Amino acid sequence: MKKRLPLFLVLFTLVFAVLALAGCGGKSQPASQSTGTQSAKEESIGDIIAKGKKVEGMSYEYTLTSKDGTMTGKVWMQGKMMKSETVMAGQKMISYIDGNTNTFITYNPDENTAMKITSPPTGQSTETPTDFTDEIDPAKLKVLETTTYEGYKCKVVESTSQDGKVVEKVWVSVDYGIPLRIETTDSVNGNTVMEYKNLKVGSIPAETFKLPAGVEVTDMSEMMKNLPQAPNVPGKQ
């Protein structure tokens, strides 16, 4: 029997990690106003965050620390293509995401097997750091300080959810407009820290996102379509 459930848990966690990175990339349009404390030559936080939209390729290592433990891995991204590597319970897992076709593949190199899911067309491709930046409004970010983190000059910014239950503190690279550290304080779900190290911005070769030759691939798409949907519970919102 193949260990299918852990593979999908790994895929979900990796996608979450990338979306966490994306959530601090910033908004694609630079802010048109500057605060009174900024000099005429100083970039606004909106200008800095907007740079993330221009990044097409990059690789980085990450560490996710939460109440459930610590997870580490490495990610390569080029446009809407992504490859992720991580180790869970002593087992190395590799995930491939093709945002152009909404295809997700989890690969177990020890067994030389893989599982694939292709979601139906929805009009929206897989989120990437540059796509997700549209959800951030630079005008609502509080700039705390300018500092150096992992060798990069960063703006440390803070945002708070409308209900005040979630506070995010983010170290944003001034050069690239993408985060290098995210501290999330959540009064309901617990706190997490995402760290991004060895960031390299530049084109990633296409072969990086291809499975090795000879891998046995199981297509789970039809099976996932046939899974029953959770029923609506009366009285629940």
Q: Can you tell me about this structure?
A:
The chain is mainly β and 237 residues long. It has one domain (45-222): Lipoprotein localisation LolA/LolB/LppX (outer membrane lipoprotein receptor (LolB), chain A, Clam), CATH 2.50.20. The protein has four helices and twelve strands; from the N terminus they run H-H-E-E-E-E-E-E-H-E-E-E-E-E-E-H. It has helices at 4-22, 45-50, 129-132, 221-225, and strands at 57-66, 69-78, 81-88, 91-98, 103-108, 113-118, 142-149, 152-160, 166-173, 179-186, 192-201, 216-219. A twelve-stranded mixed β-sheet has the order 7-8-9-10-11-1-2-3-4-5-6-12. A hairpin with a 5-residue loop joins strand 8 (152-160) and strand 9 (166-173). The termini are far apart. Mean pLDDT is 76; it is low at 1-40, 122-132 and 230-237. Keywords: Signal. Residues 63-175 form the DUF4412 domain. Residues 1-22 form the signal peptide. It holds the Pfam family DUF4412. InterPro entries: DUF4412, LolA/LolB/LppX, Sporulation_related.
